[in-house]
Amino acid sequence: MARDLSEVRFLTVAEVAEMMRVSKMTVYRLVHAGELPAIRFGRSFRVPEAAVEAAIDSHIADAG
Question: pLDDT tens, 50-63?
Answer without folding.
Answer: 999 999 888 776 66
